[in-house]
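Why does residue order matter? Because the sequence determines the fold. Keep that principle in mind as you read this record.
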Amino acid sequence: MLTPEQFVATPLGDRVVQEIERWVVLSLSDDSKDWHEMNENFHQHIDDVHQLLARMTEAELWEIVEEEAFDVEGGVLCDCPQHRCVEFCPAEGWHSRWFKPWSLDVADAILQCEASAWWADTWDRRSQVCLVERAPTCPGEFTSRNRALSPPEVVLWTSSAVQDRPSTEEGYIASDYWRSMFENELESWRYYNIDINPTKPVYEIDSQSDWARLCEFAPVVMPKYQYSGYVEPDWARVAKEWSGVHVTVNGLISCLNVEVPTSSGLAMMAHWLYERTAWLEWSVTGFEQLPDVPGATRMPRSPVPPRLREVAGRVPLIPPATDLNDDLPSVSVYGSVS
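Structure:
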């Protein structure tokens, strides 16, 4: 189970904490002069954090995680030692030097709220959805070229349905990156509800240790490209043991762009970006096409939704039309390093 200490010690978890802090600051402050004071005294607003999270739906909180995952993936590996793998490091001593004290309180509020209750769900707890150009097809063959790529190629991908959204993949489809590559093909892509054979064995990745064990089961060094030298699972060998590999939201937060020690060297999960399952063999028993291509009208990163601007019963102080992303001081959870 993901702890607050582990949550804030990963690049993605750290960014999610900062974004929740930003939402609270924007919800409570109508004067830019208040922002600095609120940032320095944020411990007084932990109740407001709980109020904000209590109003969030699964989709609203997931959207924050998903958007921050894009930023983590697009950046460089953090040099902070605690981002090297908290499960293999002492849990005490580092956060008092690197983090402001309330970071753990914010992380705990995130992990305890109803909107995050599904983050550890196994693949079979939720409806599975896939996005394909024509119709779901059998996975292809693993070769010497693709057997160590991350995420794996030649597989059928599914992701879980989320409250108010058809799939955790929707934000990826609406991203500028995806549209720049496939904009001309968007109209031919469709979402399908997928029925999976429940007897098929699936490996669940919910923590860094889960990822490490999978890499140790069938280790292979990645080809020489962006993340050369890291240990990855040999997907051809993994496919002989499991029909699918599922990364939960907790697994994504724990592992994305984090160096994880294994008996064969350092491993790193890269490019997964959202909760999903890679089906290494055909496990589909039926499928049904959904009517639209979700995400086609989804807006880019938006300010705090008007419904959530009222925190702890207070009147919203920032007009909905205000561009909250302009000239906004950063709300950092990092303290000074002595």
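The mean pLDDT is 75.
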